[in-house]
């Protein structure tokens, strides 16, 4: 019998929207064959967790929220298990736990676009009463199928990896769907939350000229946007849409790149940002839209503009295991960025303090809040 079978550990359970999470204890048992037991190292609070908690994404409880769990392998169930990419897993290894559960059989899965699975599931939407209990990220342990794990290379700092384990792969998938980025392109990133900040770094590292739109109400994010490679960060309250349009078009003219930005990445989640994004693009420009994850309402747009200026609007809301690996490889290849990424983790919490953690994240007080052991 494993010594862990006597042990209990905490999880935070979502029961219904706008109710406090319940802190519960469950026994930590050895993993079943094919599963891996991981102990908490970092587990981020994503905007999606806030949307669910505040009722903007209706998902019935009870379940353990959280899909950014980074854990240390505590015990491997059965021999010869590897991560999703064939790396053998042993006790002490660090891995990102991917919560996505694509069906593998629908049209999109069959064509390799598992991020857009038609029967998309997530591993954590299970009643925590059901053994082995630790299904979601807001817990001191997680059990995962080995195939949902992506091992973290030794060259990647733990806090850097924990900065954007959802926003990073989400951005990488949106950019892939949008045909990638070219080094000579002008990119405008709308929003300086996790998706926006990662998008700035990702585009800047590919040699693009990056402009960002943020808010001076969050000056530390404006500053990070610059540290990540934005050559200019507009405060959306202090500048008008017309001023931003003029600045982007002036830059495009100066670079002889048409009548606007080659690419706009919508990462603000604000519906009205979409109207501006269409205007910021050059004719034939690509609008990548990973940021509108919750339904925040409607806006009026002139579809005529899409036709006349031959715009490409590309949605993307999930990511694949390969995108998680690409995120870690990106960090590994840009060691200089890792320190800046780690700086985004401004708040650390125990799982037992999940309610104050969610409240703090909801107020936008933290850039990134994570649960730690
Ligand atoms: Zn599928
Ligand atoms: Zn997320």
Shape: globular
Describe the biggest sheet?
Answer: 7 strands, mixed
Low-confidence stretches: 1-5
Distance between the termini: 24 Å
The count of helical stretches stands at 12
Task: List the bound ligands.
Answer: zinc ion
Element string (H = helix, E = strand):
EEEHEEEHEEEHHEHEHEHEHEHEHHEHE
Task: Give a description of the structure.
With 373 residues, the protein is an alpha/beta fold. It is built from twelve helices and 17 strands. The protein has helices at 47-53, 107-110, 158-163, 167-177, 194-205, 219-227, 241-254, 271-280, 303-308, 321-333, 335-342, 354-362, and strands at 8-13, 22-27, 35-44, 69-76, 94-97, 100-101, 121-122, 141-145, 149-151, 186-190, 209-214, 232-235, 261-266, 281-289, 312-315, 345-349, 368-371. The strands form four sheets. Strands 3, 4, 5, 8, 9, 16 and 17 form a seven-stranded mixed beta sheet that branches. Helix 4 (167-177) packs across helix 10 (321-333). The two termini are 24 Å apart. Mean pLDDT is 95; it is low at 1-5. One zinc ion binds next to helix 2.
Topology:
Elements: E1 8-13, E2 22-27, E3 35-44, H1 47-53, E4 69-76, E5 94-97, E6 100-101, H2 107-110, E7 121-122, E8 141-145, E9 149-151, H3 158-163, H4 167-177, E10 186-190, H5 194-205, E11 209-214, H6 219-227, E12 232-235, H7 241-254, E13 261-266, H8 271-280, E14 281-289, H9 303-308, E15 312-315, H10 321-333, H11 335-342, E16 345-349, H12 354-362, E17 368-371
Parallel strand pairs: 10-11, 10-13, 11-12, 13-14, 14-15, 16-17
Antiparallel strand pairs: 1-2, 3-4, 3-8, 3-17, 4-5, 5-9, 6-7
Helix pairs in contact: 4-5, 4-10
Bound molecules: zinc ion (ZN) (2 copies).
One zinc ion binds near residues 48 and 166.
């Amino acid at each position: 019998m494993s010594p862990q079978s006597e042990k209990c550990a905490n999880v935070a359970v979502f029961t219904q929207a706008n109710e406090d999470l319940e802190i519960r204890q469950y026994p930590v048992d050895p993993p079943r064959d094919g599963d891996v037991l991981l102990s908490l190292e970092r587990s981020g609070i994503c905007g999606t967790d806030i949307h669910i908690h505040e009722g903007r994404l209706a998902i019935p409880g009870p379940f353990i929220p959280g899909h950014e769990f980074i854990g240390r392998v505590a015990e491997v169930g059965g021999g010869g298990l590897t991560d999703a990419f064939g790396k053998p897993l042993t006790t002490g290894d660090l891995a990102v736990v991917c919560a996505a559960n694509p069906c593998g059989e629908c049209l999109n899965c069959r064509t390799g676009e598992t991020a857009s699975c038609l029967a998309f599931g997530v591993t954590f939407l299970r009643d925590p009463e059901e053994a082995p209990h630790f299904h979601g990220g807001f817990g001191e342990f997680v059990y995962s199928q080995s195939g949902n794990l992506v091992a973290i290379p030794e060259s990647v700092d733990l806090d850097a990896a924990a900065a954007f384990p959802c926003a990073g792969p989400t951005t990488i998938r949106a950019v892939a769907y949008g045909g990638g980025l070219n080094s000579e392109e002008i990119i405008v990133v709308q929003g300086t939350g996790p998706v926006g900040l990662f998008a700035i770094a990702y585009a800047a590292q590919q040699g693009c000229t990056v402009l960002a739109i943020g808010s001076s109400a969050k000056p530390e994010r404006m500053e990070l946007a610059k540290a990540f490679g934005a050559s200019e960060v507009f405060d959306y309250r202090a500048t008008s849409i017309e001023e931003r349009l003029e600045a982007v078009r002036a830059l495009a003219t100066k670079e002889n790149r048409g009548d606007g930005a080659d690419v706009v990445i919508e990462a603000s989640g604000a519906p009205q940002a979409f109207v501006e994004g269409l205007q910021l693009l050059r004719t034939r420009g690509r609008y990548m839209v990973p940021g509108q994850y919750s339904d925040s309402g409607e806006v009026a747009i002139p579809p005529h503009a899409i036709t006349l200026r031959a715009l490409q609007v590309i949605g993307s809301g999930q990511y694949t295991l390969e995108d998680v690996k690409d995120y870690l490889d990106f960090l590994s290849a840009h060691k200089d960025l890792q320190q800046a990424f780690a700086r985004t983790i401004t708040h650390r919490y125990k799982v037992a303090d999940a309610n104050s953690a969610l409240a703090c994240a909801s107020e936008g007080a933290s850039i990134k809040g994570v649960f730690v052991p």
